[in-house]
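Slide 14.
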Amino acid sequence: MNVKMSRAIFASKRRTWQTRAFLRALTFRLFRFLTIRQARQEETMSQLPKFTMVDAAPAPVGPFSHAAEADGWVFLTGQIPTDPNDDHAPLSEGVAAQTRRVMDNLIIVLNGVGLRLDNVVSVRIFLTEFKRDYDAMNAVYRSYFLPKPLPARTCVGVTGLVRDAFVEIDFVAKRP
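Slide 15: predicted structure.
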């Protein structure tokens, strides 16, 4: 065999080896790219809001979910003092009884999404008769949170609530 022919055979084998190495590197890079892309898609999917209906909670009086969750924050829809077992039952008499029912309804929703009152970071309270009902509502409200640190809170007077309720309360909670 002459030198030219042996060089050609060697060059051909070298090109084959280089092509295989190139294909292996390309396959590895493509696999890595697809794995990273899939992880990013899964991360994006996990960041989409999650909307929850809790079977044990009172039926909503409007078109909304009991809770919405995004990035570990859970927003509980405002609850009024409806009976979770009978939506058409009359509302409790007096703001103290209504506040108790509302807080119990919110606890049902919290439990339904795997949380407790300890996870609540913010509360909004709406009263139809602010001056008359503020102290009575506070007495009941305080009994649910003490001796724990109290969440941030806003309490406002409003001109009316659905089903002529005296009080509506909503929560914002944070997953640990």
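Speaker note: Residues 80 and 118 are 21 Å apart (CA to CA).
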